Amino acid sequence: MTDEPKGLRATPAGGTRYETRVVDVVVLAPAPPASRDRWRVLTLRRAAGVRCTGAWELVHGSIEASERPAEAARREVQEETGLPVERLYSLTVNPFYLHAQDTVQLAVVFAAIVPPDATVHLGPEHDAYRWRTPLGATRTLQWPREHDAVRYAMWLLRSGDAGHAEDVLRISPAVPSRG
Questions:
Q1: 3 within some domain
Q2: 25 — phi, psi (to 5°)?
Q3: Interatomic CA distance for residues 84 and 170, integer angstroms
Q4: How much of the chain, in percent, has pLDDT values that exceed 70?
Q5: Of 146, 143, 137, 144, which is closest to residue 43 (Cα–Cα)?
Q6: Burial class of residue 152 in the structure, from the number of CB atoms within 10 Å of its CB (0-12 exposed, 13-18 middle, 19+ buried)
Q7: 135 phi, psi to nearest 5 deg
Q8: 53-105 pLDDT tens trace
Q9: What is the pLDDT of residues 4-19, one digit of tens each?
């Protein structure tokens, strides 16, 4: 594998490729004090003229060549919502198959905590947003892997942080780039 870009790996037989080029981000804000839930989940609706028009989804996007996944997660939250990330947590990795490219994408999944009073400014890929309860988000999101990501975030951050796993899952604000 001498000429392959970072993040690619071909199978030994040269068939289906595996790529780690995508991040998914569960954007969370503290729920109002009267709520039964600790968190609100940001959902975004795909705009007309882009893939999956009208589908509700989480923040997601590509990892640029010089980025680490955590950097891409912060950048995508900013680009798609305009929200500042106060805390970022690693949740899991979700595989999915893109038949047109014959690739298995490995989406690195994060939870981003944002301020409760910050204003959402949508990027061009989305035409609407809604803060939902965790259950409301899982009932609305298009992709089952996003349902799982919301459930993982709710479990891991059920006390407000990652508890005994905080030192493992919370990502420092200054993650060095690969430059």
A1: no
A2: -135, 120
A3: 16
A4: 89
A5: 137
A6: middle
A7: -65, -45
A8: 999 999 999 999 999 999 999 999 999 999 999 999 999 999 988 888 898 99
A9: 455 555 554 568 888 8
Q: How far apart are CA 44 and CA 81, in angstroms?
A: 9
Per DSSP, 4 falls in state: P
Cα–Cα distance measured from residue 166 to residue 126, given in angstroms and rounded to the nearest whole number: 32
Give the predicted TM-score (pTM) of the model.
0.89
d(CA 107, CA 60): 9
Q: Residue 45 belongs to a domain with what CATH number?
A: 3.90.79.10
Residue pair 44/128 in contact (Cβ under 8 Å)? The answer is: yes
Report the distance separating Cα 174 and Cα 101, nearest Å: 34
The domain in which residue 143 lies consists of 16-171
- Tell me, yes or no, whether 177 lies in a domain: no
